[in-house]
Write a structure and sequence with these properties.
The complex is a heterodimer of chains A (about 375) and B (about 140). By secondary structure, chain A is α/β, with parallel strands linked by helices. Helix content of chain A is about 35%, strand content about 20%. By secondary structure, chain B is mostly beta strands. Classes of the chains: A alpha/beta (about 375), B mainly beta (about 140).
Chain lengths: ~375, ~140
């Protein structure tokens, strides 16, 4: 069976709302406002859309049936992903387009977690909650502490993720955290959940973001330079906390193997790397599990400066969730498309970038990877 | 200590799936669910054994000796009940039967380490609720 998806589908539109605090705007409204921008970007109107994939907001809303009434269309293909970090949504859209179930699909995410004051520190009525394990920073701090014990990474080596994110965000007008943060500033900060400091954890913000995907044939007639999907893969650990050592997230290695094998590409082919970053440690894990640095040496590799402006593998050039905004990784792909179009602006455009990789996870349950490029393969 | 004096989160002690665990803790016993067919342990409770897909299970006493898989130190209270004991330490402990428990680590932080030996400590939080936690075993 022909399972090659290389170059068959392209991202032709990107759109987003302002990021930050959007009081009075629902996740669904933020989604629709973002789709409006993405359609404008793609040079299409709603009559071209025959697919819609929405991603539930952190509060569990923003389903296709909740977005539909505001968007005013009945596309033949409509789906909602429970946790649609942009990878899973892109993969579903590619599947729908290559199988002919949809021609042109809008993908969206919307959230108002900040102004709705979503309780991220929520305490579950369990042994873990009663023991004081709460907030996503708790599990990430456990994973990081173990890693540091096994491999001896220093705080400074680890700090390159948060400090690098801020360096990039300073060059991005959309980013919310743009104040300078040097390594000395970072190291001087108190621990929040030791060994994590505040800048190692995602911010919380409101906003909406959308993409338009279509077939390569249709993309050829559209105004923007298409950004093609060259490869995609996923892996799961849906047994979750019942897997001893689940926080090491070694299952991500399977997603890595798949995408390198199916594309025939290697780490050295990647010009830009985007890694969803609810915590800085999840980023380090993904860098290692996808083979950009050997497991245990990620800290030393980071300290060599590869991921910083001017480095050989720019990482999260938007500033990521640590410094740009909290859109579950969706703004990472918007940034990747901007970079590949050569439209990221003089301050942060990486010259000659042709291939980007995007990695994301649903905590320790699922992981996905996509490779996107300026050419079909 | 009375119920009203305890300000930290109390688990759902009446949840039928987990009630035997909390009842055992009051008797200073650490337990896990065990499959009657294949004898595999599981914790927290599940309706079926994920190893053999048989439903029969009972709660078995398990080892109160363990090692720290990893630990995290909270310097901020995300729940107001923890304010008074900052910084506090939460760990994942692997007991001698290979079962992983989340648990608070009591006592000084100086000798905390991944792989450090610990034993179960039962904290009587309220008249109805005893929290299994852990303390370092002197080397």
């Amino acid at each position: 069976m022909d399972t090659d998806i290389r170059g068959k589908v392209a991202i032709v539109g990107i759109g987003h709302t302002a990021q930050g605090e959007l009081p009075g705007q629902s996740p669904e409204l933020n989604s629709v406002l973002a789709i409006k921008e993405a359609m404008k970007d793609a040079g299409i109107d709603r009559s071209s859309l025959d697919g819609l994939i929405t991603c539930k907001s952190v509060q569990g809303t923003n389903t296709d049936c909740q977005v539909g009434p505001l968007l005013g269309i009945n596309p033949r293909y409509a789906q909602t992903l429970d946790y649609g970090t942009c990878n899973f949504s892109i993969h579903l859209a590619v599947q729908a387009i290559v199988t002919g179930m949809a021609d042109t699909v809008a993908l969206c995410y919307g959230a108002n977690a900040r102004t709705a004051k979503f309780p991220f520190g929520f305490t579950p009525p369990t042994l873990a909650g009663a023991s004081g394990l709460m907030h996503v920073g708790g599990p990430a701090a456990l994973a990081l502490q173990r890693y540091k014990s096994l491999y001896g990474m220093t705080d400074e080596e680890f700090g390159y993720i948060a400090v690098g994110a801020r360096e990039w965000a300073r060059r991005n007008p959309v980013a919310l955290f743009r104040d300078p943060m040097s390594m000395a500033d970072y190291l001087a900060m108190d621990y929040l959940i030791e060994p994590l400091r505040r800048p190692d954890l995602t911010m919380i913000s409101d906003g909406g973001v959308a993409l338009i995907l279509t077939s390569a044939e249709r993309a050829a007639d559209m105004p923007n330079k298409p950004v093609y999907i060259l490869g995609m893969s996923e892996a799961s650990q849906i047994r979750g906390e019942y897997m001893p050592g689940y926080l090491d997230r070694e299952f991500l290695g399977l997603a890595a193997q798949q995408i390198w094998n199916s594309t025939g590409m290697t780490q050295s082919d990647i010009d830009l790397l985007y890694v969803q970053d609810p915590t800085a440690f999840w980023v380090l894990q993904m860098i290692e599990h996808f083979g950009f640095a050997p497991v245990g040496d990620g800290g030393k590799w980071l300290a060599e400066g590869h991921t910083l402006p001017g480095g050989s593998l720019p990482l999260n050039t938007n500033g990521g969730q640590l410094s740009e905004c909290y859109m579950w990784g969706w703004m990472h792909i918007v940034e990747a498309v901007r970079q590949l179009r050569g439209a990221a602006g003089p301050e942060r455009q990486v010259s000659g970038a042709e291939i980007a990789m995007y990695l994301s996870t649903q905590t320790w349950f699922k992981g996905g990877a996509s490779i996107i490029a300026t050419h079909k393969g | 200590m009375t119920d009203t004096a305890y300000t930290k989160p109390v688990p759902d002690l009446d949840d039928p799936a987990m009630a035997p665990f909390w009842a055992a803790a009051r008797q200073r016993r650490l337990t896990a669910q065990q499959c009657t067919s294949c004898k595999a342990y599981r914790f927290p409770a599940l309706e079926i054994c994920p190893t053999c897909l048989e439903q029969g299970a009972h709660w078995a006493d398990v080892s109160q000796d363990g090692t720290i898989w990893s630990f995290a130190t909270y310097h901020r209270a995300f729940h107001p009940g923890f304010k008074d004991e900052l910084p506090y330490v939460v760990a994942i402990v692997e007991n001698a039967d290979g079962i992983h428990y989340v648990g608070k680590i009591s006592g000084p932080r100086d000798h905390l380490a991944v792989g450090a030996k610990v034993r179960t400590l039962f904290i009587e939080c309220t008249d109805r609720f005893t929290l299994p936690a852990w303390e370092l075993v002197d080397a």
